[in-house]
Amino acid sequence: MNNPKQGMTLIVKTVTRVTVWLIVLYGIYLILHGHLTPGGGFGGGVILALAFLNIMLAYGRETTQKWLNIKFLEDIEAVSATLFLFMGLLGIALGGHFLINFLPKGSPHSLLSAGNIPILNVLIGVKVAMSLFLVVWVLAGLHEEEGGQS
Amino acid sequence: MILPYYITIPLLSAFLISLIAGKKDKWAILLSTTAGASMLILSIYSLIAQNGETFIYKMGFWSLPVGIVLVQDGLACLMLVLVSLISFTSLIYSVQYIRHMDRNWKYYALFMLLVTGMNGVIITGDLFNLFVFMEIALLSAFALVAYGGQAEEYEAAFKYAVMGALSSTLVLIGIAILYSATSTLTMAKMAEKVPTLDPRLIYWVGGLFLAGFGLKAAIMPFHAWLPDAHSSAPAPISSMLSGVLIKVLGIYAMIRLYFNVFGAPHLYMNVFMVLGAISIILSGLLSIVQWDMKRLLAYSSISQIGYILVGLGIGTPLGILGAVFHLFSHAIFKSLLFYNAGAVEMALGTRDMRKMGSLVHALPVTSATSLVGGLAISGIPPFNGFISKLIIIIALIKAGAPVYAILAVIGSILTLGAIMKMQRFGFRGETEISKISEKIGWPMQTSMVLLALLCLLTGLMMLPGIRESILDPVVKVIVDHHQYMQLVLGR
Amino acid sequence: MTLYLMCFALFLVGVYGLLTKRDLIKLILSIAIMGYSVNLLLILFAYKKDAVFPILLKGTVQGTMVDPLPQALVLTSIVIELGTTALLVALAIRLVQKFKTFDITKIRRLFG
Amino acid sequence: MPVETWLTFILGFMILGSIIALEIRDILSSIVAIGVVGLGVSVAFLFLQAPDLAIVQFLFEIFALIILVRAFVKKDYHIETPARVNGFIVAISLLVLIAVFVSSVSVFKLLPPFGQPLFETSRHYVTHGTQETGAVNLVTAIILDYRAYDTLGEVTVLFTAILGTITILRIRKGKDAGRKGT
What 3-state DSSP class applies to D26? Predict the structure, then answer.
């Protein structure tokens, strides 16, 4: 934690490299099974954000900036919100009402069921992940910049 | 049905602005003004086409207590027109005003989110949904108040944010208790069940809502944040906050709850009258002693909110007509006055009236329109403010509350004094000012002239033919509280 | 009934902090406490005796369920509270940068 | 032990934790105490049969802690200045709050007692939810189908919050740095 720009020690970096994928996998699992098990887009999205955060803390800000294009993340955030709105507008086009569940419902307990719900869950998951990561990114960035000045 | 488009148009424009704006603000301006104009057209069209009817829109086609319902009745229509009007002129005004600060698309995206939140609050028929959209409007308002990036702006925004968070929590507790007692969130369904509940419960929950929405409307004991926030924000945002935000989040939500859901309990009508009278007198006095032009206007906003509350508290159709009309006209002239203050601040770089002088030659349009706005707010005849205040005072006398009528007249004189001070020192002082740092361009002039004309023209809304089609349905919604429930539930 | 009252007391602890504390961070924490209490109150209202969580499990016959609607509301309100907290923290950081203090009584350039 | 007893313990512990968080001088301990209270909420959600919420509350709690610690503790680690607490204000606010609390006692008595909700609107969700939406998790069915409009608003709130945060924290340069304060 001494120099936030360089990140932490090699041990932490190596462990992070392995565990981040597990965390991401778990987040994706939670999001996709949102209509079947507890969790859903919000929980899964936070887990994804925590995975990104893990990278940021372990590898430091500069390396993370190389890996993750921040502007791109902002765009993904806006796109996922827009797509949520478009799902609602598609409801008007296909079902006659805003945000109507227009896809076939399928049989309960299967992964591809419940019409719109899995799609909306994925959109929310992406949106939450990006938003929360960006919040911490911006808040943390301000500090380091201030540190650089003084 | 056009109801969901009041949400989707501003929301889509906010999302698209953040996607395609890039670094410059050109696209942002284009998109947001297009959205603003289309909402203005939509809302005026629906006001004309409404014809006293009530439209219901079921979100996702779920039957009533299960899903969320949107309701568009006379009151909602009028508020939508008001929000679209003020937001459209503010957007035009912003084009020059914000460029003088910086060129950033984020301002326009946040502005459209603010409009989304207010529209959502207006058209919803569901109590929790009202809370969610209230939060959208509040969060964007916090960020917009802090937009200028000065120390005072952060301080004002922080104060506003803490107060806003407290009021939202109070409202949410009220919603939770009402849900537990009635087992529904649809306001019409709640209204159906309220008569079966113990009145003590309604009084207590009403107290929570009074504190929560009173904080948002800045009624007198809860007003501490307003003068700071409204004077520190950029001028177009001040006019949005003072003109429509406190009315939509505060007064409109209170009308829906206390009149349409609770059925206008007597206790709260009296509380409205008392708090309204306190607001009129105290903040009238406070506004006279201010030397900061925008602070003066901010205090006078609290005083005018007091008039609206007193009018609502009378409870007679005439009083409510006055309150609704005053709500409408106050939005127009207060926004106009804030535009003027913003123009003066931009030209002179200060808001302190002691440093100003005669601006009649330097800023002809601004000083002329400020005279119109000032006369309207202090209730001088041909302007709309005169008519609305007159109706409230007549209603007070008719309802047998002469004390309140005298207080209202005194408040009007206090407002006149404050406005005279603003005119005397701010626009028509002794020292002739010829050198201004920045010219007021056509976008700002257009919006000022437009609102000044409307100050005169909206007085025509009281003419017999127009009044029946626009204002009377609104009054009917508020007075006849069973009607709302029956229309929404389809009985 | 006792539980409702305790939850309301938790809310009042938050309000007490908001009224008396003079530290920027303490104010933010007080708002967080109020948020917890409201969320918990909603879920307390939803609880039904001997009921199970509102998720159908495969192959089992489930008994009565607790009220799912407040759970959905609380999910929304948790997210809203996080958004408010983030915004408040951002404002507080800026205030500390400008005024070099955490004490709200010393941050008084405006009055009113 | 019945649920009520457990919840009474948890709630008492939460009230204690929040008082400690408010009264303690050290800001890091204060933030950690709030985190513990948040975890208490999460456990209470588990007892109240809301696993969805327990997960989300737990995760958002961690996140709020990260934000708070990252924002305030790292560089300007500070100990609260021993502010002269105005005894008058404390006494007045305590009196008012106690009055509110006492008045609330009779109101909470009027509500349906703990464990017996009215369950009118929600009966529809429980009996028809899976059949109408296809989702077996009824909370998901509500937030993404019955009340999807709320969720659209919620997504917008998050969007607004992040946009606002970026706007507030954006680095300002150029001519506005010289803009006159009033």
Answer: strand
| Residue B218 to residue D155: CA distance in whole angstroms | 28
Minimum-distance CB partner of D126 among C40, C54, C82: C54
Nearest alpha-carbon partner for B352 in B436, B430, B296 = B296
CB atoms within 10 A of CB D178: 6
d(CA B362, CA A111): 70
Tell which residue, B328, B250, B324, has the closest CA to residue B472.
Answer: B324
Helix D148-169 and helix B5-20: axis angle, to 10°?
A: 40
Q: Look-up: residue for tokens 């998050």?
A: D158
The pLDDT of residue A5: 58
Where are chain C's structural domains? 2-50+63-106
- The mean pLDDT of B58-79, rounded to a whole number, is 88
In this structure, what is the dihedral angle of CA atoms B12, B15, B16, B21, given to the nearest 10 degrees? 150
Rounded to the nearest angstrom, the minimum Cα separation between B399 and chain C is 35
Contacts of B16 in chain A (CB under 8 A): 82
On whether the C2-50+63-106 domain is CATH 1.10.530.10, my answer is: no
Kindly write down the DSSP assignment for every residue of B29-85, as one continuous string: HHHHHHHHHHHHHHHHHHHHHHTT--EEEEGGG--TTTS-EEEE-HHHHHHHHHHHH
Domain-embedded: residue A1: no
The DSSP line for B320-377 is: HHHHHHHHHHHHHHHHHHHHHHHHHHHHHS--BGGG--B-TTTSHHHHHHHHHHHHHH
Number of H helices, E strands in chain C: 3, 0
- Predicted local distance difference test score (pLDDT) of residue C110: 63
Contact C58/A at CB under 8 A: yes
Condensed to tens digits (0 to 9), the pLDDT of residues B392-410 reads 999 999 998 899 999 999 9
How do B55-58 and B69-72 pair as beta strands?
antiparallel
ipTM of the complex: 0.93
Residue ranges making up the domain that contains A95: 10-149
Question: Buried (b) or exposed (e) across D44-77, using 16+ Cβ within 10 A?
Answer: bbbebbbbbbbbbbbbbbbbbbbbbebbbeeeee
Q: Hey, are the CB atoms on A139 and C89 less than 8 Å from each other?
A: yes
For residue D182, the Cα-to-chain-centroid distance in whole angstroms is 37
**Count of domains observed in chain A:** 1
Give A63's contacts (C-beta < 8 A, 6+ positions apart). Answer: A7
Q: For chain D, what are the domain ranges?
A: 1-80, 129-171
**Residue B318, CA distances (Å) to B259, B483, D26, D35 in order:** 15, 18, 58, 54
Q: How far is A70 from chain B (nearest CA, A)?
A: 14
C-alpha span between B340 and B365 (Å, rounded): 9
Segments of chain C with pLDDT less than 50: 112
Give the pLDDT band (50/70/90) at residue B462: confident
Terminal C-alpha separation, chain B: 21
Chains in touch with B (≥3 Cβ pairs < 8 A): A, C, D
